[in-house]
């Protein structure tokens, strides 16, 4: 059984590696807060518990990495924006695996909510 202590952050990457053109900017903000010694914020990042994968990796390689990360997470932080509904592969897979297999809670975040 996996030791679950990480936070899995799910977001829509919008098929781009540009860090300003997708919801990855919110994930990067969380990492920035966690590394800043002046901010009291601690992120145990499940994405850092496995080797890095690239968007150009084989689909099965990506899926295996996502499953491993989710299996080692105690919850999922789901970043929802206007574009999340356009993701038809990875975000739905991550949600399904988190609920159906890992049985972990999902915390939904709406960064553009007024």
Report the mean per-residue pLDDT as an integer: 87
Instruction: Please report the distance between the alpha carbons of the first and last residues.
Output: 41 Å
Please state how the strands of the largest beta sheet are arranged side by side. 1-2-3
Q: How would a textbook summarize the main sheet?
A: 3 strands, parallel
**CATH fold-level name:** Rossmann fold
CATH top level is: Alpha Beta
Overall number of structural domains: 1
Oligomer: single chain
Unreliable stretches, pLDDT < 50, 5 or more residues? none
What is the alpha-carbon Rg in Å?
14 Å
Level-2 CATH architecture: 3-Layer(aba) Sandwich
How do the SSEs run, as a string of H and E?
A: EHHEHE
* DSSP helical segment count: 3
The coarse silhouette is globular
Task: Tag the structure with descriptive keywords.
114 residues; three-stranded parallel sheet; 33% helix; 3 strands; globular; alpha/beta; Rossmann fold; 3 helices; single chain; 14% strand
């Amino acid at each position: 059984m996996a030791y679950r202590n990480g936070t899995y952050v799910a977001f829509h990457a919008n098929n781009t590696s540009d860090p300003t053109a997708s919801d990855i900017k919110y994930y990067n903000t969380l990492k920035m807060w966690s590394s800043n010694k002046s901010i009291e914020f601690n992120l145990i990042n499940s994405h850092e518990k496995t080797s890095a994968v690239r968007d150009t990796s084989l689909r099965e390689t990506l899926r295996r990495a996502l499953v491993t990360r989710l299996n080692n997470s105690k919850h999922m932080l789901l970043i929802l924006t206007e574009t999340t509904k356009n993701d038809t592969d990875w975000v739905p897979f991550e949600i399904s695996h988190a609920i159906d297999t890992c049985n972990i809670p999902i915390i939904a975040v709406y960064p553009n909510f007024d």
